[in-house]
Amino acid sequence: MSSNLQMTPQLEQIHGQIRDHFRALANGFQKLDKIKDSNRQSHQLEELTGKMRECKRLIKEFDREIKDEEGRNPQEVNKQLNDEKQSMIKELNSYVALRKTYMNTLGNKKAELFDMGGGVAEPTAEENVRMASEMSNQELIDAGTKTMDETDQAIERSKQVVHQTIEVGTQTASTLKGQTDQMGRIVNDLDSIQFSIKKASQLVKEIGRQVATDKCIMLFLFLIVCGVIAIIVVKIVNPHNKDIRDIPGLAPPVPSSRRLLYVRSGQHFD
Fold first, then answer.
1. What's the confidence (pLDDT) of residue 110?
2. Which of 7, 67, 134, 264 is exposed most, by the fewest CB atoms within 10 A?
3. Exposed, middle or buried: residue 186 (CB in 10 Å: 0-12, 13-18, 19+)?
4. Which parts of the sequence belong to the T-SNARE coiled-coil homology domain (predicted)?
């Protein structure tokens, strides 16, 4: 069945490692029958216990990968993968039961199965042994369902956190967009102000040039008026000066000769 399973490369790698451990367990228990020394048997059982512990870890990892790919796989593929997982759990349970039989025979109660150590919130070795060797398939399924429910709840909480984070990010993006638009309007206003200042500067320069031109014209007219006045004054003061031409519209003064007429008695004017 496993050869027809549709698995991702990650699942195939984990599945292959589990199968390698199962083959090593089968060979190890075959060798155990040939060992007569109890100390060597105990040492061999400890090695096999380590391999079973690693198998359990890999089966958990296999289960996590199935859940991650569950939404992307067809229902039939998910069913086949879960069946393969249950098959591996049963096979591991058979090795656990076989180990327990050898342990009882040897009277060796050391090294409980799946004792991960470290004092963290993990099941004790005794509970793990019961889970692996004494629990029925239905109990294993119920325990797995409970774990899946807890995982789903944790995922839902994570989704809520992600949703809230997305909302905050959306609000932040909207605020940044508004600020960006406002900055764009400010830049446009600054460009308009700069253009107005430039036009005003050009207008001031033109007005300055006009004022300068007007001043030059007024000065030139003032000089002309002063010259005309000077000529008039000189002409009046010295009318016989031939170096000064007559000003049009201004005739030279006519010398006046007065005749004194004496009126005598009995005479009249000619």
1. 44
2. 264
3. exposed
4. 145-207
Angle in degrees, CA 232, 236, 240, rounded to 5: 115
Question: CA 197: distance to chain centroid?
Answer: 39
DSSP per position, the chain: -GGG----HHHHHHHHHHHHHHHHHHHHHHHHHH---HHHHHHHHHHHHHHHHHHHHHHHHHHHHHHHHGGGS-HHHHHHHHHHHHHHHHHHHHHHHHHHHHHHHHT---S-TT---TTSSS--HHHHHHHHHTS-HHHHHHHHHHHHHHHHHHHHHHHHHHHHHHHHHHHHHHHHHHHHHHHHHHHHHHHHHHHHHHHHHHHHHHHHHHHHHHHHHHHHHHHHHHHHHHHHHHHHH-TT-TTSPPPTT-PPPPPP---PPP--TT----
Q: How many CA atoms lie within 13 A of 232 on its CB side?
A: 9
Query: How far is Cα 175 from Cα 150, in angstroms, rounded to an integer?
Result: 38
pLDDT, tens only, 1-55: 455 677 888 888 999 999 999 999 999 888 887 887 878 888 888 889 999 999 9
d(CA 248, CA 229): 14
Which among 159, 53, 152 has a CA at the least distance from the CA of 99? Answer: 53
Q: Say what the pTM is.
A: 0.39
Nearest to 114 by CA among 124, 104, 103: 124
